[in-house]
Design brief:
Length: about 350
């Protein structure tokens, strides 16, 4: 499949640079609408898709899961799976669709994912991960990367993490994002697994010392750009932010082009970003989509600002109504301004 003429696929060097700051893959959250919205806040940040399972693409033929807008670049596709041949085929489909990077999920602890023997449970089988990565690399030219944990269950992270990295890196894979906490596969829900196992940033930074040639991004519990800068100063190449970027998108993303990527650029104004979504929304509605599918990702745009509650409330209450269209953005902005003025 040839790439569309308007493809803005970027090279591997540029993806490595973009990974200096990335928005984490988040199921049900970082869909294409969310990514388009995030892109209006930062031109440079690397955006990840939600995890797409290799069987859904290869056996289920669910190629619509790969749809995205060219404006989203740089954008990485995250795959879930543990069958090297199937992952290779899925990676090929992703690269053909124009994704800048293909990432393998070795961090997700959900039951559904465990039953398919993929996600965090693969931390126990670095040999299989290496086989998967090798097969994916052999089938695409774009970067193939891994997002993993520091260990699972009763594993000792200081032992398993370096072993995992060295075995997977032996395939030639040189970019890893490490969620700096274990996943406990029994007894904790996926949500609890993002909060309860303690964070160990020191262990992740130590990996950079052990494997200086690897490009290592750190993830987990980072809620402000100051902390991201401190972690980059400790020698890591990248910081990945998940929940904070979703819930406070302006706070996290609006300043990164200047503060993290060193661009001489104006910080986007949140009102202009809200208004900038209107043509995208209009187009989505024309194609039969619903307003709420987009506006649900925009609720946090004014987080912490006067009147933010009114913005949220108007979007969430009216966004689901039949016939709701992009003019809701103007009404929600008016509500917010009026509330802020009193
Ligand atoms: C709603 C939600 C869905 C997630 N889905 C995925 C996923 O599909 N793939 C993945 O690797 N991690 C997933 N994660 C984990 C995040 O990518 C990230 O590792 C985790 O939230 C820790 O980062 P944070 O503290 O910055 O949020 C998800 C997290 C959330 C909150």
């Amino acid at each position: 499949m040839a790439l569309p003429d308007d493809s803005k696929q970027i090279g591997q060097t540029d993806v490595r640079r973009a990974a200096r700051l990335s928005v984490a893959p988040m199921m049900d959250w970082t869909d294409r609408h969310c990514r388009y919205f995030h892109r209006l806040l930062s031109q440079k940040t690397l955006l990840y898709t939600e995890m797409v399972t290799a069987p859904a693409l290869v056996k289920g033929g669910a190629l619509h899961l790969l749809d995205y807008a060219p404006e989203e670049h740089p954008v990485a596709l995250q795959l879930g799976g543990s069958d090297p041949r199937e992952l290779a085929q899925a990676a090929r489909l992703g690269a053909q669709a124009g994704y800048d990077e293909i990432n393998l999920n070795v961090g997700c602890p959900s039951d559904r994912v465990q039953s398919g023997a993929f996600g965090a449970v693969l931390m126990k089988d670095p040999g299989l991960v290496a086989d998967c990565i090798k097969a994916m690399q052999d089938s695409v030219d774009v970067a193939v990367t891994v997002k993993c944990r520091i260990g699972v269950d009763d594993q000792e992270p200081s032992e398993v993490l370096p072993d995992f990295l060295s075995r997977v890196a032996a395939t030639g894979c040189d970019r890893f994002t490490i969620h700096a906490r274990k996943a406990w596969l029994q007894g904790l829900s996926p949500k609890e697994n993002r909060d309860i196992p303690p964070l160990d940033y020191d262990l992740v930074t130590e990996m950079k010392g052990l494997f200086p040639a690897l490009h290592i991004s750190i993830n987990g519990g980072i809620t402000d750009i100051g902390t991201a800068c401190d972690l980059l100063d400790r020698g890591l190449e990248g910081v990945m932010i998940g929940r904070a970027a979703y819930h406070q998108p302006w706070d996290i993303l609006a300043k990164v082009d200047s503060q993290i990527f060193g661009m001489d650029t104006d910080v986007p104004d949140p009102v202009s970003v809200a208004l900038g979504m209107k043509p995208y929304i209009q187009n989505h509605l024309k194609q039969g989509g619903r307003l709420h599918q987009i506006t649900r990702h925009m609720l946090g745009l004014f987080a912490g600002r006067p009147g933010a509650r009114h913005w949220r409330r108007r979007l969430s209450e009216d966004g689901v109504k039949n016939g709701a269209d992009e003019s809701l953005i103007d009404r929600a902005l008016d509500d917010m301004r009026m509330a802020a003025a009193v």
